Amino acid sequence: MNQDYIKPDNWSIIEEGFDAERVKSSESLFSIGNGAMGQRANFEESYSAETFQGSYIAGIYYPDKTKVGWWKNGYPKYFAKVLNAPNWIGIDIEINEENLDLNTCTEVRNFRRELNMKEGWYNRSFEAVLKNGTEIAVNVRRFLSLDLDEAGVIKYDITPLNKDAKIVYKPYIDAGVTNEDANWEEKFWEPLEVKKGTNEAFVTAQTFKTHFKVTTFMHNTILANGENINVSPSTIDSTVDKVQYTYGTIIAKGQTSTIQKIGGYTVSLNHENTLAGAEKVIKSAVALGYDTLLQNQIEAWAKIWEMSDITIEGDVKAQQGIRFNIFQLNQTYSGKDSRLNIGPKGFTGEKYGGSTYWDTEAYCIPFYMATKDQQVARNLLTYRYNQLDKAIENAKDNLGFKNGAALYPMVTMNGEECHNEWEITHEEIHRNGAIAFAIYNYNRYTGDYSYIPEKGLEVLIGIARFWHQRASFSKDKNQYVILGVTGPNEYENNINNNFYTNYIAKWCIDFAAEQIEKVASEYPADHKRVMDKVSLSAEEVKEWKKVADDMYFPISEELGIYLQQDGFLDKDLVPVKDLDRSQRPINQKWSWDRVLRSPYIKQADVLQGFYFFEDHFSKEELKRNFEFYESFTVHESSLSPCVHSIQAAALDKMDMAYTFYLRTSRLDLDDYNKEVEEGCHITSMAGTWMSIVEGFGGMRVKNDQLHFSPKIPKEWKGYSFKINFRNQILKVAVNHNETTFTVDGDQDLTIIVNGKPEIASKFVQIN
Q: Which of 114, 135, 421, 490 does the annotation list as catalytic?
């Protein structure tokens, strides 16, 4: 834990007291989104101290040229940037002819932020004394509409406390923005058109290179004590990429002046004419009005929480943590559009770039399968299917592979690889396995096999072809090996025979071969269509199987464990508990050379294989491998604590499971890795959900049935969650005395609890 200023609360994220040192961290933590767009919790008014301004639009990106001092064949030509979008929230404010700026006020008191996760709004309030002696109270509420997802709303209230005040509002929209994270300090936006109306304005701009067109809009209403005073702007200032209106008002001491600002974006992904689209959005939002828009927001979030909420009794910090994670996941991805995906920072920052990593398939899909309609998860699979041609092109052009072998990118926006670190781009090839595993996991959980003959089989074939060609035969070992890789543990590069990579490669080939046979038997028309399309023969599949059947896995007979890679035991095996705390995190304290030579593990690697393929190993094998590798794991990846929490629970190491749960659930709230100001770790938040459902709840799917082995941390009085399993809603509630299972509807559901079959109808109780 590196920060502890967020107040414990079951439903809200709360900060009290103004501290300029934590402004950027709070901008991340109080971010809001609605699946179509999002923004950091920047101040609407001017702020002259350090800040990280950021607004983002789903699906909009820029191919920033890769910045390296040297070049190698196959390097990605660009690193895709999640673009800082034009700013629509800005409102410069003057009070008695002095600019409102919390950095220059003589006093700021009663400062409070609240992110109300239950109702989906962000509120900021404070009292301030300006240099001219005017004292004011300010309350600002902002939300991004879930129903009208191209629009956001700001209600900014100012109450003079010690004298009458002349208040000047200067709302603006500005496309002249830059990215915090840019390689060459290039401009990303080209202004096209500015349009001004009575109380509304529009700036249309497009991205250079990718030519996404965006119209940013605003509509302003000025109120006094809640009543519209129908004031028009006294001046209108504009440039090629910015429009700013000026409204002057006089308000008596103790009375309240308000500006309501509606703003947002319409994009060429969804509109042929973005300006006309923006005018239509404003008309709809204004017709509804602030109060109705807010009430609709509250009702929309109530529907989301009805299915996705997890309750925890007796531990407010744990409860706050899981709801923060679930809230951010629902803000980031709604599942409506198969062109979109789940970026690692969501709408909270720019780091990492790209809209998708292997995190989506390995961690996020289980959450969306269980808390949404299965179509949402299917859309995530379709996203990868639609980019299969690019994956084949990537393997062919960058790695020299042939015959339709597919290597999915480590980082992508449109299917092209856009990660610019060589050891990740070319070596962290295990991401292919996660994409195949997600297809298997989707079928296992939903029972919807139709995706495989329709789309998934082509993906599985491309991936199997890749592994077949990537492996090489070792005469010394008389087995197939995979050389020069980076496993999930990115603190090891260019290693040979990473256990996880080799294991998932073998599994991918076996799974693809099984599905080819199944589709041939049960979907002959689809089988013929796919085989003709990819030109696959039975002889080729036999060649794949030779590799899978004779894959090499490094082991230690003495320790009874799989080795993370060849030579792992040659390292200086000093466990993490003996590492001086002053040396942590090692990725910020050590040279990269020292990190690579150390035994320290960034995240689950061998244990990632045990997580995916738990049924392939005995409990004793898991115990030996867990106890060995966890002792060297520094958990400096956001994806690490969740897997370890699940496995600790499976091994009845409940104190450890609870500690890992708190770390994953409060990773950003408590800033464990000293980097939250760069944005939140959105994709790992799905792992937090898994820590409860799969960890403490022990939920698994085996042989088309749900299995549970419920456990509860001693720190909790009880917990509950819901899952949508094959269109049946099951609620699980656990306390120290019993577990209850409740099924919505009239259809019974057979479940396996602690190895025994139970019939869950309206209610079943297990003591």
A: 490
